[in-house]
């Protein structure tokens, strides 16, 4: 025995005494599980329901396969290949049968009930419809005559009707501005026709008085889809959910929900706007601006008054983004009303996963504010952005829905992401090859099942959130409003000059652990300063802030930055701010913020000036908020050659080996509080034994508030023993 004395000896489930054992040795409960079961955090799977899946013999076989041959315990169903979960009794009955069989086999089942965009809800009247407004302009000749077109094209839908909405004539004084004394509404004086859906031809004959004038017209297009702001959309959501009231679903999902889709790769720059009766009414009620006037102002401002255009663009985007968010909230609340408050909310609403493509026009980039227990993303969104989603939601982990054709890429990603409390939502079971690899196959499962068995040890460890000392905030108005820099305006009508994603990746790659969030979270009150002037979001506290692009910030954001800097908060500030959200000058308040910033200008090399250092585990693992750590290593798992480690945790030096995963939380005196270890055999603390197993095995060890321990060892009953030393 060690001269340190045995703290406790566990053999075959009983505490065994020894001459050196303390009489006050803690009570220990040892259990054996083969394999160690999952708990706390679901192992998510996307499952395609195709016409073949609807047959009871097929879905029963699949349920059995998922339950007994894979590590997944929570499949989400999604309709594919013509299957429709809405208004189809055969699909409903198949879902009911899947849920019944799944529950009998220990699985939970969620269903993605809605399609990815608003076109799923069909309007019954023009007053309900979502419309898209195109604009066009022409210059009148010496006789005041001109002809031009206003056209629009969506990704797949063709408008059912295209009509003139409004037309103005004015004399230009420069790009995007006009002489206000010349502005005239000429809607009644122009003629228009629609030679093809989505195109409006405008003919103007105003007479010589208007020679050289510009005529600007708005064309409205109807698509038969319900306006997201119309009560009919909420009623449709209720009707879809109500179809499954009789099925005890465990989760419901909107997947990539948003507006009807604009082109992914526009052949001409996208310059449209979404509208509709309910949209317009809500916009005017919220902003005090008639929508038609605002749409004109997003393109033209009176000479000398850029604030008019700035405010119009900002207000439009701010309201537009409320559409998908309102639907997400309605779906979440009604799902819980019908299926109970434990209903799992899914899935992600990251659509094309970037800030400057068509994402904003689809989902409104509401990634951080949609109602979810856990942050959710897809397609390998960068880790700093995913860390922002994690801290913006209640759970301490987040899910990234991932697919691809390289099986090993799944394993590499799963193990790397696990260091930062990120999990894969696997996509997708019975994939026929359109998206990636069929997850039900033996080659996939033979590589991924061992990985997931190790990651479930981390689930049982129940990790704290990752330690993310640096909070990166980007200005959402600056991202969405390029004006007046025409060179910054991209094909999706947003500001492509900021390179926010590239900057945060550079921070992360340099070893600085960070979370990325938009200024929205300041403006909605989620992100605040605590009593010690530290940024705090959802209980997570940060030591320093990098703020990217404050131009056009709301007053609440300026107030946050002012208070933070005036009380010695560590701030790196990138970009100037000359005007606020309403277009009014803000030079005075911003100059005071910039004067107190720790660093002006973005520089990864200057981040240490904020009091933040690179992670010492940057190449092997991650730190957590409670002082615990997670290490992962894929090669050790695949080769069954234990990975040696030597690390400091809470002032004590620990060393040993593991396969796949290792997680440890220690008390100030070095006592183990929690431990998760793949193929654990021994653990040393400060050069002396802390823990020994008779034979290497996956292990979970937890200590209660009273000092008692529970240990779960993988293997048959009585197959191992554990020694834990003082």
Descriptive report:
- The chain is built from 17 helices and 39 strands.
- It folds into four domains: 6-33 and 627-725, no CATH class; 44-119 and 325-461, TIM Barrel (Alpha-Beta Barrel), CATH 3.20.20; 126-227 and 261-320, no CATH class; 470-610, Rossmann fold, CATH 3.40.50.
- It has 726 residues and is an alpha/beta fold.
- The strands form seven sheets. Strands 1, 2, 3, 31, 32, 33, 34, 35, 36, 37, 38 and 39 form a twelve-stranded mixed sheet that branches. It has an eight-stranded parallel sheet with strand order 19-16-6-5-4-22-21-20.
- Residues 1-25 have low confidence and may be disordered.
- Helix 5 packs across helix 6 (306-320).
- The longest helix has 20 residues, at 442-461.
Report the helical percentage: 25-40%
The strand count comes to 39
Kindly state the mean pLDDT as a whole number? 94
CATH C-level name of the largest domain: Alpha Beta
Instruction: Please state roughly what percent of the residues sit in beta strands, choosing from under 5%, 5-15%, 15-25%, 25-35%, 35-45% or over 45%.
Output: 25-35%
- By CATH, the topology of the largest domain is TIM Barrel
Main sheet attributes: strand count, strand direction, barrel closure = 12 strands, mixed
| Total number of helices | 17
List segments where confidence is low: pLDDT < 50 over at least 5 consecutive residues.
Answer: 1-25
> How far is the first residue's CA from the last residue's CA?
12 Å
Give the number of domains.
4
Question: Any idea what the radius of gyration is?
Answer: 29 Å
Structural class, please?
A: alpha/beta
């Amino acid at each position: 025995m060690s001269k340190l004395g045995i703290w406790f000896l566990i053999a075959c489930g009983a505490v065994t005494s020894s001459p050196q054992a303390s009489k006050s040795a803690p009570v220990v409960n040892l259990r054996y599980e083969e394999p160690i079961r999952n708990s706390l955090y679901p192992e998510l799977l996307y499952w395609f329901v195709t016409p073949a899946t609807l047959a009871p013999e097929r879905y029963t076989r699949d349920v059995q396969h998922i339950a007994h041959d894979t590590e997944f315990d929570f499949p989400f169903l999604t309709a594919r290949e013509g299957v429709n979960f809405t208004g189809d009794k055969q699909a409903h009955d198949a879902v009911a049968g899947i849920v019944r069989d799944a529950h009998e086999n220990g699985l939970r089942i969620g269903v993605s009930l809605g399609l990815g965009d608003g076109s799923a809800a069909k309007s019954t009247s023009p007053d309900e419809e979502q419309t898209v407004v195109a604009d066009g302009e022409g210059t009148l000749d010496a006789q005041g005559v001109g002809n031009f077109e206003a056209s629009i094209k969506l990704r797949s839908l063709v408008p059912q009707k295209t009509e003139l909405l409004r037309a103005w004539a004015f004399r230009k004084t420069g790009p995007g501005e006009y002489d206000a004394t010349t502005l005239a509404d000429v809607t009644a004086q122009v003629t228009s026709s629609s030679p093809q859906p989505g195109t409006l031809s405008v003919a103007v004959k105003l007479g010589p008085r208007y020679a050289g004038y510009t005529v600007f017209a708005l064309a409205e297009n109807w698509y038969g889809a319900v306006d997201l702001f119309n009560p009919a959309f909420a009623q449709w959501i209720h009707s879809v959910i109500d179809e499954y009231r009789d099925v005890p679903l465990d989760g419901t999902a909107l997947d990539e929900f948003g507006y009807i889709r604009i082109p992914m790769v526009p052949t001409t720059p996208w310059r449209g706007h979404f509208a509709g009766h309910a949209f317009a009414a809500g916009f005017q009620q919220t902003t005090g601006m008639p929508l038609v006037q605002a749409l004109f102002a997003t393109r033209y401002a009176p000479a000398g008054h850029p604030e008019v255009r700035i405010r119009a663009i900002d207000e439009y985007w701010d309201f537009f983004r409320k559409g998908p968010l309102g639907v997400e909230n309605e779906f979440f609340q009604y799902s819980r009303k019908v299926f109970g408050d434990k209903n799992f909310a899914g899935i992600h609403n990251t659509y094309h996963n970037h800030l400057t493509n068509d994402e904003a026009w689809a989902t409104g980039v509401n990634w951080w504010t949609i109602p979810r227990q856990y942050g959710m993303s897809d397609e390998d969104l960068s880790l700093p952005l995913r860390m922002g989603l994690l801290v913006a939601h209640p759970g301490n982990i987040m899910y990234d829905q991932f697919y691809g054709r390289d099986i090993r890429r799944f394993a590499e990603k799963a193990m790397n992401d696990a260091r930062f409390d990120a999990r894969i939502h696997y996509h997708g079971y019975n994939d026929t090859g359109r998206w990636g690899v069929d997850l039900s196959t033996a080659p996939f499962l033979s590589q991924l099942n061992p990985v997931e068995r190790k990651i479930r040890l981390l689930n049982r460890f129940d990790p704290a959130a990752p330690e993310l000392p640096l909070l990166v905030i980007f200005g959402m108005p600056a991202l969405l409003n390029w004006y007046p820099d025409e060179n910054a305006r991209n094909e999706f009508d947003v500001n492509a000059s900021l390179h926010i994603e590239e900057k945060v990746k550079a921070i992360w790659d340099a070893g600085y652990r960070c979370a990325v969030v938009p200024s929205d979270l300041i403006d909605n009150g989620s992100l605040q300063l605590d009593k010690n002037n530290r940024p705090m979001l959802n209980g997570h506290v940060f030591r320093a802030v990098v703020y990217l692009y404050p131009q056009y910030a709301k007053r609440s954001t300026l107030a946050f930055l002012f208070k933070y800097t005036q009380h010695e908060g560590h701030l790196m500030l990138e970009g100037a701010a000359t005007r606020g959200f309403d277009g009014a000058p803000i030079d005075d308040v911003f100059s005071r913020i910039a004067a107190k910033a720790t660093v002006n200008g973005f520089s990864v090399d200057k981040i240490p000036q904020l009091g933040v250092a690179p992670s010492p585990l940057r190449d092997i693992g991650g730190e957590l908020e409670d002082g615990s750590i997670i290490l992962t290593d894929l090669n050790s798992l695949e080769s069954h050659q234990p990975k040696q480690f030597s690390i400091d945790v809470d002032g004590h030096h620990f060393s040993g080996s593991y396969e796949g995963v290792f997680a440890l939380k220690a008390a100030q005196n070095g006592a183990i509080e929690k431990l998760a270890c793949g193929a654990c055999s021994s653990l040393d603390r400060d050069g002396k034994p802390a823990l020994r197993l008779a034979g290497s095995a996956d292990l979970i060890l937890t200590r209660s508030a009273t000092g008692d321990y529970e240990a779960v060892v993988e293997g048959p009953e009585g197959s191992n023993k554990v020694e834990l030393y003082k």
